[in-house]
Structures are given as structure tokens and as C-alpha cells.
Amino acid sequence: MTRRPGFLVYGLLTAFIIGSTAPLYWSLLVGSHTKDVVTRDVPPLLPGGHFFDNAQRVFETVEFWKALGNSLLVSTVCATSVVFFCTLAGYAFAKLRFRGSAPLMIFVVATLAVPTQLGVIPLFIQMAKLGWTGHLWAIMVPMLVTAFGVFFMRQYLVDAIPDELIEAARVDGCSMIRTFWNVAVPAARPAAAILWLFTFMTVWTDFFWPMIALPATNPTVQIALQQLQSGYYVDYSLVLAGAVLSTIPLLVLFVLTGRQLVAGIMQGAVKG
Amino acid sequence: MQNTTTGPVGRSRPRAARLRRGAAIGAVGVLFMGLASACGGDDSGSEADGKVTLTVATFNEFGYEELIEQYMEENPDIKVVQKKTGTWEEHRDNLYTKLAAGSGLSDIEAIEGDGMAAILEEADAFTDLTDPEVEGRWLDWKTEGGTSTDGQLIGYGTDAGPEGICYRADLFEQAGLPTDREEVEALFTDWDTYFATGKEFVEKMPDVAWYDSSKGTSQAMINQLEFPFEDADNNVVALENPEVKAVFDKVTEMQAAGLATDLDQWSDDWVAAFQNDGFATMACPPWMLGVIEGNADGVEGWDLANAFPGGGGNWGGSYLTVPAQSEHPEEAMALANWLTAPEQQIKAYEAKGPFPSQEEALGDPQLTDSVNAFFNDAPTGEIYSERAAAVEVQPYKGPKYGDIITAFQAAILRVDQGQESPDEAWESFAADVERIG
Amino acid sequence: MSLDHPVAPAGDVVSTTSPAGATTAPRSTTEVPVPREPRRRTLRHRLSRLDVQLSPYLYISPFFILFLVVGLFPLIYTGYVSVHQWSLIGGQGEFVGLENYRAVFEDRYFWRALRNTFSIFVLSSVPQVCIAMVLAGLLDTQLRGRTFWRMGILVPFVVAPAAVTLIFGNLFGDRYGLVNDALGLVGIDAIAWHVDTFASHIAIASMVNWRWTGYNALILLAAMQAVPRDLYESAAIDGAGKIRQFLSVTVPMIRPTIIFVIITTTIGGLQIFTEARLFDNVGLGGSDRQWQTVTLYLWEIGWRVRNLGMASAVAWLLFLFIVAVALLNLVLTRRIGGGSR
Q: Do B269 and C174 touch (CB under 8 A)?
């Protein structure tokens, strides 16, 4: 039996994709016109010529360059750290035998569902004591490892590395760390890339904790966006130009790696 | 899934392995260097070239841009960086967070008048700015508002907000009302006349509201009460005070009569209403002129009347403080002193409109001669000087003032929006006041 | 060399589609790997043995140490803060027992926040899962340009919640928003999205739905592709149409994944913050707290009211609630997962 889809399926999917992209397009529309566009009776259908004017105003109104730099740094550091430490731990859980491995893994799985963001208050108190509030440190430290990362890497590595390979390396006299480096790391690469991507996006889009921990003067992109909106009057051309600008880096990343992203989600174990 | 590049390795390729391990260590090293450098985003005050860097955190528009340039020219050893936030609320969140964190505050922090009493509760966290040089610089009420209970001067006054009425002369004309600046004064002498005129107006112009928002109007009325929400000992009297209830009743009654836009002040739709002939008048402190000009870009017909219902009223006006966290309190104090001196405040007024709260500035011809082209060339300096003189009552604002006025206005807004009847809204306001304590 | 290979028995692979449900950690035995040792231990051997024994702990310790410090400890410490007077500025005060909890329970805004959270959660999870199911069903066909469609529905996922909220906040303008303009075209009166409680919940839920539906559809799609195709064939022989097949074959077969999606959506839905915070530029959830969620309430108490003690009580209550939901999930997925195998 063939399951070739008909026009209906393509039609519905097309409608869905239009729905998925229309708000972004609207954002571009408003962001590329002057601010009176919002109150016009008939909204424009094509982007106007003011995007760069509006973008420039975004950069003048808030410290958007700094915000971009901050977000890039924080997301990169966290994603790299998560990948590194979680691959290490995931490998240990997947392939090494040690006392307590089972209960510890259960612990990791159990914490997957724990909303750690509810720990913001002590986190804030501690950061204040350490004098870290306001610094990017405060944003990075809570995101250096994730339980999800460990779980994800373990799931992948259990299947990805044949035990014989590790055995062979050991027989050849490799130390444990060298075995990890030579056998596990190359095998983990595809999963690591996905984990990196996801962590990067999670950190990039995070809002709650940066809003609490970072002052307006040292923002991430999301906080800068909020500042654009928080004036005594909201200039939507400005705000939505900012929304577009803030999304461009992730869109670029998405175009480059969307295939892997899709594959990563479909491997299932990816949680937002 | 086996990676083809992996092969069993070990002795056979020790060098490659060592290299890779080296790379791994390198990668981790880079990671931590990244962390370490990220930690360096500190605004430590001193720089290599021996200059002292002072940061000034303000919200909305203080009009300090050019003044700061001037100050740096006159004081080559000092570098001043201004950090601007949108609204006072946003600025306040930031301020308290950093106050709690014990670090990260700017050398000078601006404080909105309504929030000053709460800041005075934390006087320990701020530098005492008492200085014989600034004695008598400000209007008395302004100085009092910046002084803590034990007599420390915590804030230097910046601006004041004497209110006039901004109106749309073109809409007035359509409604058959007088349009001339002097003639309309008679319509705004007291609240009853103001509201009566409003009823007349909306009858003729049913699509246009009389004033911009119940919030703004109620704020103006509250600002004419002597002890609106707290008595002199900071006991909360908001619910017992008949004047407060009277304001509430009047504003909700007028809303029912169709005088208000029913919009939340500062909301998107409120902003849009400027472009859509949403309303004809609004309570107008000097700093509002810039807001109107920005929102009503391209709209013609705005004017400013030298009158305010009930005489005079003050809405807004801020202070500059120097947090104890500052590493350069003396330099910061000198800068705050300079910025709030009459000459500078006049320049700030010319730049962005915050009206001086300094005695000397009020009579200054530079101020009184100023006009505003957008408002039909209204002599704004002269008008506001007179409006400032007309202010008879300065409301007492205790530490809970900010929270209570927010709850009060939210209650009125709920009536505007049809969420609650006036009685219900008053009930829930009472509950909110209980909650605030 | 006679070292035992330090490899856990393979084969205990947990279903990769369901992280939250995957309670079966490696079933590896608790026995210590005891290498059969030669009589004479050389230094090299001893080091090697130490390497084998210690390495696993070394590898997992960075994760556990960091996680304990920044993840678990703060959660537990939240409980400690919640039984003290604790102001944002003044810091720790005296022990007050359950006073903060009483204050939370007596605050009508807490109940309102709870109501809003629940309502927004229902409005965002139910349609989201249903649409994601349909979408996954559409994608689970022999499409041309498969990657294009899959990537296409994932576009919203790369837009940060803050940006989504700003965009939708504009679309849902009370008087001049595009949504109301569109409604006007079909003769529906403008809806006050920022005023009416239910309307504001719909607006916020639509932001969540927009961002997450495609993502969840992909997870469901992965599960659907694992359904044996011959099941469809035999259903077709029995005369079942496409829709019938979908309901009676697909849905039951992927039930564990559906439950997983529901649970992750729930956990996310109970913590909605950004959307509520940025829906207007005041940030407290409306004049009557129409759309203030529990997390936003927590923030208000902690950073606007500046009472960290009471805010901690809120956090702790929400935490317990979410853990309860997660446990329920664990039980459910286990039972259902076990039953269908």
C-alpha cells in the first residue's frame, strides 16, 4: 500500500509553514517601516526601506553590540562546557563499571524533570555574596552542566561504542583517559554536536535568570530586547527591528545546522 | 555506529595520542580562560591613564548628554559614562537588585520622586551629600523629599513637575470650544469646570475622549492632597482618607460619563491614541511635553494652557544619589552637585524638558524665555514657572507611597477596562493596601 | 595483560524516545570490577588498577559537583530561606516557621496566579499536542522534500520567547493589532487581549503553541516512524480509512511518546514566565493580574515586593507541585509503557 500524500497534505503543511514564519515576517515588516505603520488601517505587505534606520536606533538605544557579544560568549562557553563534562560523565555511565553507577544514574534521570530555575533565590543570594551579580559569570555558572546532557550522551554512547573497541584500546595499554579520548570522543561527535547546538540555543534564549542576575548595563540579547520594550512608550518599529536582529544569529545557525537539529529532536531525547 | 577515523589506537600511535591529549587540555584551558575573561566585565573606576571613571545611571530622559561632554572637557581627569534605562520601574528593579547584591551600582543613581521615600529607608546604603554649598539650592519641599529622618541629605533634586494642561486646539475648535491659550484657562480653573467642559466636549465629539487616561487624571488629583496615603508618622491611611475616596469616586464617575479613553497610560494603545485623535486634553508636567511630541509626531494642534484645575500640582521630578558602593564618592558628589546646579538644570531643560526644581533657576530669563514650537510656540518656560509658583500643596510621600499609588491606579484601571465595578475595584484596592501593609 | 575490560554489560538500552520515562538506568551489577591480578604487582599494575577504579568517579565528578552546587543545593536552600524572614536588601532575618507559606496562601494574587497558570497551561498544552499529532501524521507520509518540511515547522523554535512575546504582543494589540484587524474583516468585534482574562490567556498560550508545536510534532513523528508499516496494511485490509488508521493504529502505538510530550509540556507550561512578563511593558501581568503566572508572581514577590522569604515559599510550593506531576508521569509512563510491550 502506498502512502503517497495528496494535495491536501501538501496544502495543510504549506499553511502550517506559512503560519510558522508569518510572525517573523510581520516582525520584519514592522521593523522596516516607520513607527506609524502599526496604527495604519491597512498594514503593508512588503518590507519598507527603514530597517537599517531602525536597526541603527536599536544599537543607539541599548547596548546591543555588547549584548550580542555577551550572549555569544555565554552561550558558547556553556555549550562547550556542557558538551565536555556531560560527554565525560555520559561515557562513564555508558561504558564504565563502578560502584554506585546505577543509583547515580537514576539520580541523574530523576533530576531531569526538576525545574532548577526555581532555585533562583538562593542562587541570587549566593551570587550576591560572591559579588558575581552583574557579571557574566553569574549567568554561566548555573549552566555549565545539565542533567539532560549526561543522560543524552549516555544514551547515545551506550550504542555508539562497541565494547570491543574499548577493550582493544585497553589491551593496547591505553590509560583510561586516553581510551576516552581516542575511542569515546570520536564516536560521540555527532551527539556532541547536537547537544552543543541545543545548549547554545537554550542559553541564548534564556530570559528569567539573566533578567534577575544581570543589570541593564551588562545585558544579554534577551535582556536588551526587554529594555527596548520598557520605555515610557513602545516604539514597535524599534522593538520588532530588535526582535529580528536578535533572531538573526540563531536563524543563521539554524540554516547551517537545521538538518542536524531535526535529527537531534527526532532521536527523541531532546528536551527544551 | 563506528567512526572510521577511530581505529584501535594506543601504542601504535602514541604521538598522535599525546597530541590529541594536548589538544584536549588546550580546549579545556580555553574554556576556562573564556570564563575568566568573562568575569572581567567589571566597571572598576580607575583606568590605566589615571582618569577616574564615573558612571551615572538615569531613566527616561534627564537631558544630561551634552552636560556630561561639557563636564569632561572642564575636568580632563574625569570620564563620565551615562547608563540610561527606559522607565523608572525598570530602573528601580535594577537598582534594588544591585543594592541587594552589594555591588554593581553606578556612582550616581537617579531616583524618581515617588520612590525617594523608600530609598531613604535604605539611607545607610547611600552617601550623605550634605554640603553647605548646596544649602537653599532647591525649593523647600524638594530638599525635604531628599532628606532622611536623621537629617542626612541623600538626594540632590533635579527637576520638578509643575502641571499645566495640554490640549488639542484643533479638536477644541471642532467641538466649538475656545482654542486660544488665554481663553481656555477659564475652562481649567477647577476640577468641576474641567469635568463639566469635558462632558460638553464629548457630547459634541463622541468619538474623542476628554482626557488621555483615568490614571493620569487621578494621579494629578492625588498629587494635590497633603497626606494622601500615609500620615506624617508613615501610618497607612489610604483607606480612611476621605479625600482619596473622593478622587476615586470622581474619576470613576467621569469615566462612566465617557470622559476617559479607558486606556492604560503608557500602554501601546495609549501611545497609538495620540495618532488617532483619541483624546483632547491631558495633565501635563514639563517632562510630558517630550512624550507627547514623540507620540504625536506629525499631529498638529497641540498647545499648552497656563492653568491647572485646583490651582497647581506637581507630578514627578527626581533626585540624584551617590550609593555608598561608589569607589569615588567625592568625585561623584562633585558631579552630582554640578549637574543639579541651576545653570546646568536649565540646559537639561532646554535639551529634554525636565523643569528645574532649583530656586534660582526658576526666575532665570534663559528659562522663562523658552518656547516650544510643537506646542504652537507656547512660552513653556514662562508658563511652567508660573505653574510652579501655583503649587500650594506637596503631597507627603512615605515609603509605601509608590506601592499604594500603583495599586490605586490599577483599581481605577480595572474600572476603565470593565473588569470591576467601582465598588468592587475599591474593595480590591482595600485588599491590596492590606497586602502592602 | 590480564585486566578485566572496564565495560558495562551492553544491551540495557533505554528507549531513547522518552527521557523522562527512562527510569531504567544501567542495570549493571553493583559488584566492583575486581581484576584478576598477577601475583607480583608492579607499580605499573597498581597505577593501572587505580586508574580503572578512580577514573569513572573522576569523569562524573565535575558534573555532580557543579550540579550539586548550582542545581540541587539552591533548590534545597530555597526551603531554608522560605522559613525565614528574608528581605532582598536586608538579607536573612529571624526564623518564622511557616509564616511565609501562610502569607502566600492568604494572598489572593497567589490563587489568581495559580488559576492563570493552570488556564494558560491547559490552553497551551491541549491544542499544542493535538496539532502536533496532526502535523506529525501529515509528515509521516512519503513527502517530497522531507527535510524542507521538517525544518520549516521548526523555524519558530529558533525565535527566543522574549522575541516571540514582543512580536505577538504587537499582533495582539487591543485596538490596533493585526489579529483584531483580521477579526474585524470577518465581522468580529475587537477583543481586548490585554484586558480580558481569558483572551489574554489565549494570546499567551498562542505564543507558547507557536514556538513549540513544530518541535513536539518532530518528536511524535519519530515515534510514528517506528510503528511497523504492516499494521497499517492489515488495518487497510480491514477497511479502515486514513483517519481511522491514524486513530486506531498510530495513536495507541505511540502512546508513551504522547505522554512524554504531555509531561514535558506540562513542566514547561507550569513555569511560563517570559511571555507573561513581556506581554505588556508594565510586566506584572495586567491591571488585575489577569495573566500573572506563578513564576511571575514569584518574581514580583521577590524583586518588586522584595520579600525573598515569601518568594521562596512560592518557589518551594511550585517545586513540590512540579515534582508531584513528574512522579505521576513516571508512574504513568511505566505502567503504560510496560503494558503495551
A: yes
Residues of chain B contacting C107 with CB distance shorter than 8 Å: 435
Residue C173 sits at φ, ψ, to 5 deg, of -60, 140
Taking the model in full, what pTM does it have?
Answer: 0.85
Find the domain containing A76 and state its range: 49-271
In the predicted model, is pLDDT for residue C12 greater than 60?
A: no
Interface of A with C in 45-84 (CB under 8 A): none
Neighbour subunits, A (≥3 Cβ pairs < 8 A)? B, C
Please provide residue C93's backbone torsions phi and psi, each rounded to the nearest 5 degrees.
-115, -150
Residue A188 belongs to a domain: yes
Within a domain: B220: yes
Residue B226 belongs to domain spanning: 164-311+377-436
Which chain C residues have a beta carbon less than 8 Å from that of A253?
Answer: 158
Radius of gyration of chain C (CA): 26
User: What's chain B's Rg over C-alpha atoms?
Assistant: 27
Is B132 found in the same domain as B47? yes
Q: What are the DSSP calls for B230-276, one per residue?
A: B-TT--B-TTT-HHHHHHHHHHHHHHHTT-B--PPTTSHHHHHHHHT
From B253, B266, B263, B264, select the one nearest B426 (Cα to Cα). Answer: B253
Which residue's entry shows cell 597505577?
C47
Residues of C in contact with B414 (CB under 8 A): 287-288
Of residues A73, A169, A178, nearest to B38 (C-beta): A73
The residues that bridge with C307 in the sheet, in sequence order, are C87
- Are residues B307 and B388 located together in one domain of the fold? yes
Do B63 and B146 lie in one domain? The reply is: yes
Four-residue CA torsion sign, B57, B62, B65, B68: negative
Q: The C-alpha cell of A253 is what?
A: 545557525
3-state SS, residue C87? strand
A33 located within any domain: no
Q: Please determine, for residue C16, whether its predicted confidence score (pLDDT) is greater than 70.
A: no
Residues B257 and B394 in one domain: yes
Query: Considering only CB atoms, which chain A residues are within 8 Å of B97?
Result: 133, 212, 215
Nearest to B8 among A135, A168, A181 (CB): A168
Among B93, B410, B417, beta carbon nearest to C195: B417
Question: What span, in angstroms and rounded, lies between the C-alpha atoms of C28 and C34?
Answer: 14
Q: Which residues of A touch C157 (CB under 8 A)?
A: 201
Using DSSP, state whether A234 is helix, strand or coil: coil
User: CA of B242 to nearest chain A CA: how many angstroms apart?
Assistant: 32
Closest-CA distance of chain B to residue A120, Å: 13
Among candidate residues C274, C267, C279, the one with its CA nearest the CA of residue C319: C267
Of C54, C5, B19, C52, which is closest to residue A169 (Cα–Cα)?
A: C5
CA of C282 vs chain B CAs: smallest distance (Å): 8
CB contacts, 8 Å: B109 with chain A: none
Q: What is the pLDDT of residue C7?
A: 30
Q: Is residue A81 part of a domain?
A: yes
pLDDT digits (tens, 9 = 90+) for A256-270: 998 888 888 887 544
**Rounded Cα gap, residues A231 and B365, in angstroms:** 33
A89-116 pLDDT, tens per residue?
Answer: 999 999 998 999 999 999 988 887 777 7
Q: Please, are residues B262 and B191 in contact by the beta-carbon 8 Å criterion?
A: no
C145: left (phi over 0), alpha (psi -120 to 50) or beta: left
Question: Residue B143's domain is classified under what CATH number?
Answer: 3.40.190.10
According to the model, what pLDDT value does residue A128 have? 87
The band of C11, judged by pLDDT with boundaries at 50, 70 and 90, is very low
B226 lies in some domain = yes
Q: How many domains does chain A have?
A: 1
User: What nine digits make up the cell of A74?
Assistant: 555565554
Q: What is the pLDDT of residues B133-181, one digit of tens each?
A: 999 999 888 999 999 989 999 999 999 999 999 999 999 999 999 999 9
Taking an 8 Å cut-off on Cβ atoms, the answer to whether A133 and B268 are in contact is no
**Closest Cα partner for C167 from A217, A234, B90, A220?**
A234
Q: Tell me, yes or no, whether B7 lies in a domain.
A: no
